[in-house]
Write a structure and sequence with these properties.
2 domains; 0% strand
């Protein structure tokens, strides 16, 4: 009697390594060298081959994978061709889709998406998850620059894949990291807060006193100069009067 695996491989899990590789290349950006085109192409083809091989273990999974393989190829071609990678132009001229005689992948991607949206068969939701992920990672294809249309497509997909989406906005992104983290509110010691405040206050007081002393000395000096000037004028004015009195005698 054959045993069924406890957790069967799902289509989203099967395609995850491909999405991870595209994200890695996107982060790499201009840091990559133009000579890495052959390496990137070989690695991506190896991922596709591995996905196809793993899918063969489950007839239902294989059937689903074969229906999304072409959209995934269109996704990869578009993401790399429109990226900042040094070999983006070379990839655009040697798209994987060309090997399958597909010359309009950016447009056909959305045709296949619409066909899947119109389908209610078993497995369609899994395939819609793949389309949704492609759009979420930035695939624009035929609708480059038409963000509202792309958002509309994603909204059309959402009701069909609700069970796959994490709609809990209050949930923790990495719950495991909180298992050994003390989340209690730990107040800082009074000394560590009070001492810097006292030092700052003392510095401000010293600065104010110093400023007042300087202003006082400046004002006093100006006042003394004014008084001396007045006295000189008075002394000068009193001398002629004294000379006139002496002449009259």
């Amino acid at each position: 009697m054959s045993s069924v695996p406890a957790t069967a491989l799902t289509l989203p899990a099967l395609c995850e390594p491909l999405f991870q590789e595209i994200c890695r290349l996107n982060r790499l950006g201009r840091k990559a060298s133009s000579g890495e085109f052959a390496i990137a192409a070989a690695e991506i083809k190896a991922i596709f081959a591995k996905m196809a091989g793993q899918a063969k273990a489950d007839a239902r999974l294989l059937q689903n994978y074969e229906k999304v393989e072409l959209p995934l190829i269109f996704f990869v071609d578009s993401m790399i061709s429109d990226s900042r990678l040094p070999f983006a132009n070379e990839w655009n001229n040697n798209r994987l889709a060309y090997e399958r005689n597909e010359l309009a992948g950016d447009e056909k991607f959305f045709d296949l998406l619409d066909e899947t949206l119109a389908e209610n068969k078993d497995g369609a939701a899994d395939r819609l998850v793949i389309f949704y992920t492609c759009l979420g990672l930035g695939f624009t294809g035929w609708y480059q620059g038409q963000t509202e249309h792309l958002r509309k497509k994603m909204r059309e997909i959402q009701p069909r894949i609700r069970e796959f989406l994490d709609t809990d906005e209050t949930g923790l992104i990495c719950p495991d990291s909180y298992k050994h983290t003390n989340t209690a509110n730990l107040p800082l010691p009074m000394g560590s807060v009070l001492v810097p405040m006292l030092i700052t206050a003392a510095c401000l007081i010293i600065m104010v006193i110093a400023a007042n002393v300087v202003l006082f000395k400046t004002s006093s000096s100006e006042l003394n100069e004014a008084i001396d000037t007045i006295r000189e004028h008075q002394a000068a004015a009193s001398k002629p009067a004294g000379n006139e009195a002496a002449a009259e005698r």
